[in-house]
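Consider this one:
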Amino acid sequence: MKEPSTFAWRALFFSIIQMKSIVCFGDSNTWGYNPKDGRRYPESIRWTGILQSELGRNIKVIEEGLNGRTSVWVDPIEAYPNGKDALIPCLDSHCPIDLIILLLGTNDLKAHFDKSPKAIAGGIRLLGELIQSSASGPDGAPPRLLLLAPPPLGHLGSLAARFKGGTEKSNQLGAHYQQVARELNCAFTDLGGKIQSSDQDGIHWEPEAHQTLGQHLAEKIIRNDLLT
């Protein structure tokens, strides 16, 4: 009889441990924006829903996605997009949090912000520092952090003017985010090597990308013991 894999054993472990919580803090791709019609994908298609299904009922996956959300930049066009302003009350309201998955930066590429890839990564670092200095984890400790670099932009079409210059910058984010992850000593994945942005609008993701990401993150969380 074939021995269960390490992944299978750890999945079984998560099925019997005390409830753990994961907060997914991001933008419209965490919210589940469908690039074909602008509506929200159902829970079963969103990467957060896939992650919940893969990890099982003893892991609570909490969606904190907002359309247009930036890392730290105040947007004069859209209301309430500043991730920094939203993060602190989010940490308090969902406490205790075992793991935070941080996925922001795509909206920081908008032309009117005029931010370099290094500056965008700097905003992400500030959010990571806020998470790691908080007392919102178990027993008043900080939550663990999994930092994700968004995939490069696809074909922008009607959004080309809004994201002018963003495609080239987006291809540089992975390297800058990886450096931030090293400095924060946190888990990291560059989504540029995992999924692609849809050519429907160049920003959002097709269902296949959500599926791939949800499954990848579940395996990473289990294999790297990010909830223990």
